[in-house]
Amino acid sequence: MAGFGGWQWPPEGRRVTGSTNVRAVTADEALVLDRIGSEQGTDLWPSEAPFATRSLPPDRLALPRRTYRLVGDHPVIAAGGLLLETAVSAPWFGQPGGAPIYRFLDQDGTPLSVRELLAYRLLTDTTAQEIPA
């Protein structure tokens, strides 16, 4: 499947077939996630996931990486109104894959972009709080 940037993207949206699970987000989850690229996208990874396990094309290394924290005490989360889709990143682009890949969904199952999650205050951008290695 041809896609963004002219790359041949894997089927199933970078997810291992059959690995997808959807559940409600709970208030006690302390997710620290990141995204490489634009806030218009919907895919997030655990911030500690190595690049090769994300199955992204190599040119993505030149894009900005931002980190985010889930706002667990948000009223939408308390009401069970935010869903979390989890899957396993498929091997692709010469990368091994294997990292968890996350996408937040509204009650209707529509994916929410990082930009929307920030606007709704469901995520907080913590990039500036990172301590350089």
Describe, in plain words, how this protein is organized in 3D.
With 133 residues, the protein is mainly beta. It has one domain (15-127). Helices cover 8% and strands 24% of the residues. The chain has 2 helices and 7 strands, in the order E-E-E-E-H-E-E-H-E. The protein has a 4-stranded antiparallel beta sheet. A 3-stranded antiparallel beta sheet has the order 1-5-6, with no helix packed on it. It starts with 20 loop residues before the first strand and ends in an 8-residue tail after the last strand. This is TNT domain-containing protein. InterPro entries: TNT. GO terms for molecular function: NADP+ nucleosidase activity. It comes from Cellulomonas soli. Pfam families: TNT.
Topology summary:
Elements: E1 21-24, E2 32-36, E3 45-46, E4 65-70, H1 75-78, E5 83-88, E6 100-105, H2 114-119, E7 123-125
Antiparallel strand pairs: 1-5, 2-3, 2-4, 4-7, 5-6
Short description:
With 133 residues, the chain is mostly beta strands. It has helices at 75-78, 114-119, and strands at residues 21-24, 32-36, 45-46, 65-70, 83-88, 100-105, 123-125. It has one domain (15-127).
Number of helices: 2
Strand numbers in spatial order across the main sheet: 3-2-4-7
Distance between the termini: 37 Å
Structural class: mainly beta
Proportion of helical residues:
under 10%
Rounded to the nearest angstrom, the radius of gyration is 15 Å
Global geometry = globular
Structural domains: how many: 1
The profile of the biggest β sheet is: 4 strands, antiparallel
Average of the residue pLDDT scores: 90
Strand percentage lies at 15-25%
The SSE string, one letter per element, is EEEEHEEHE
| Extended strand count | 7
Are there runs of 5+ residues with pLDDT below 50, and where? none
